[in-house]
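Database export, one record per block. Field names are fixed; values are copied verbatim from the stored entry.
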Amino acid sequence: MARKKQTGPTEKEMTILSILWKRGASTVREINTIMNHDEDTGYTTTLKLMQIMYEKELLKRDTSSKTHVYFPANSEEQIQSQVIGNIVSRVFAGSTEKLMMRVLSSQEVSEDELASLKKLIEAKEQEMKS
């Protein structure tokens, strides 16, 4: 049976993207060193992942010097929106309400987070009235 095409970044790809968003453009060696703080990851594994990410257009690279420097093709917010869109579509049958209800019922939410969510909902309501 054919493998289903992955939509959005994998867990390891998200790790690499997170590092790049925090630190900025980096070489494979720099990314691999950081990844090895949490889990032993071989250099060639990191290299292959980043090459695949480049092919998937998740990363861009500067090849002007001998050592290639990689950087994210999209902002953190853009990737988060893409991933959330995929989750809403695949898991929640397109219902944002179902997603939010599940999140709020299954996760601890602080008062500050609730206040932020209320403000966002109020802003969306105003936007819809305009």
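Remark 1: The helical segments are 11-23, 28-35, 43-55, 76-91, 96-106, 111-129.
Remark 2: DSSP finds six helices and two strands in the chain.
End of record.
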